[in-house]
Amino acid sequence: MIHRALQRGLASALCVALGACASMPATTPHPTAITRPAITIGSTPGLANAGSLVLQPQGSDLWNQLRGSFAMADCDADPQIQAWARRYTSNPQRFENQLREVLPLLAYVQQVASQHDVAGEFVLLPWVESHFQPLPGHWRRPAGMWQIMPTTASSMRLRVNSRYDGRLDTVAATQAVMKLLRQYHEQLHDWRIVDYAYNAGEFGIGKLIQQHGMPADEPVIPRWPVRRITREHLTKLLAIACVVREPDRFGVTLPTLPPPQQLVQVDLPRSMPLATAAALAGISTGQLKDLNAAFRSSLIDIRDAPYLLLPASQQQQFQNALRQPANAAVAVSESRGRTEGETASSDTVHAVASAKRARVHTVRRGESLWQIAHHYSVNVAELQRWNHLHGHALRPGTVLRVRAAE
User: Fold this and answer.
1) Residue 84, C-beta contacts closer than 8 angstroms, at least 6 positions apart
2) What is the C-alpha end-to-end distance of the chain, expressed in Å?
3) Every domain of the chain and the residues it spans
């Protein structure tokens, strides 16, 4: 979790702290003086230029590519790494299912990390932070699969307003985080401390460097006076990387990602309702909202993000549908809050209507009414009314109606 404003942190604390370390006796093989300028956050990709990074098709050797980019310790470096790896895989089938569910996002993050030359372990950082879930944030709370704090989002140039939360935008947030991690490493030269800075805040890490110098290579988990949660954060990251390194050791099989399930970024020529975009792409509104959780309402507003993330299998259908005059007319009219069905083909009208039909949702462990309501673009009161609920408590496995019966 990123905790503090980025510019205030490394621009001051690390610059001063690391400069002070230069005069101390050298006790470790790591550099203790920083000669590069202090980190400042410039035009972080994510809004206007989010599409500037061209991603290549992901091959079937995703896991080999990821292993080849690892830069930190292996499974045997610390007993706690193995302990957490075994905890993650205590139920191999459940672990494989969870990994398969988030694999499209993991593969997308892997490509962005590769473009920024970030250590492969950080591709797995959202597993530690959120299990790759687009967790909605509340006031002064972190949000998104990267668990970014509101003040940090501002420093990273991630827009947050009543319509849109850039922390939940996979494209913008992943770009911003990878740029930040790269800059951290250019200052610190130690990926372990990069993880500490991400979790504990760069200002506090700068003070630790000033007081103790950079840590030695051993032990792998530095013996610094940090909070247990910060030390455990690095241990968990190395543990999930350990499972990827040696899946046979833990009795699991890493899933493969078929090319049609890979995620691609598709530019939008105009704003449109989420249901319309889903119908044109041929997927459910819920699936589209899962992939594009940054949009807080039922409208995709290109003033906030002029693109969508889609499965590769639906990219061509969506782009072809946008080129059809009838479909374009429906998208424009709905984005203005009007219905002009006479200008649309019957197929398009049927597709849009189908996307709005009643659906049900099976509650998963840890889900709240607020999260489910956000997912389906409804409010909590409606969910409670449709399902005769008198409180907010939910039991895993409960089937909820998430649309009013038509």
Assistant:
1) 235, 236, 239, 240
2) 42
3) 6-43+56-250, 259-355, 360-401
CA 311 to chain centre: 16
Residue with tokens 């009795």: 251
Q: How far apart are CA 286 and CA 269, in angstroms?
A: 22
**Under 8 Å between Cβ of 102 and 165:** no
DSSP H helices in 189-345? 191-200, 202-212, 228-245, 274-281, 285-291, 312-323, 325-335
Hey, what CATH topology would domain 360-401 get? Membrane-bound Lytic Murein Transglycosylase D; Chain A (3.10.350)
Token reading at 48: 């206007």
Rg (CA), the chain: 23
Neighbours of 337 (CB within 10 A): 8
Total residue length of the chain = 406
Cα 283 to Cα 132, 344, 359: the distances in Å are: 20, 19, 13
CB 183 within 8 A of CB 15: no
Q: Which H helix or E strand runs over 311?
A: strand 307-311
Judge whether 106 and 145 are in contact, CB under 8 Å: no
220 and 237 Cβ atoms separated by less than 8 Å: no
Burial 83-97 (b: 16+ CB within 10 A, else e): ebbeebbeeeeebbe
pLDDT tens-digit profile, the chain (406 residues)? 655 444 444 444 454 444 333 333 333 333 333 222 233 333 333 343 444 444 444 545 899 999 999 999 999 999 999 999 999 999 999 999 999 999 999 999 999 999 999 999 999 999 999 999 988 877 678 999 999 988 889 889 999 988 999 999 999 999 999 999 999 999 999 999 999 999 998 888 999 999 999 999 999 999 899 999 999 999 999 999 999 999 999 999 999 999 999 999 999 999 999 999 999 999 999 899 999 999 998 999 999 999 999 999 999 999 999 887 655 545 544 544 433 333 344 444 444 444 444 467 888 877 888 778 777 777 787 888 888 888 778 888 787 888 765 4
40 within 8 A of 14, measured Cβ to Cβ: no
Q: Which helix (H) or strand (E) holds 19?
A: helix 15-21
Helix H or strand E segment including 267: strand 263-267
The answer to pTM > 0.85 is no
In the block, residue with structure tokens 């790269």: 182
How far is the C-alpha of 83 from the C-alpha of 81, rounded, in Å? 5
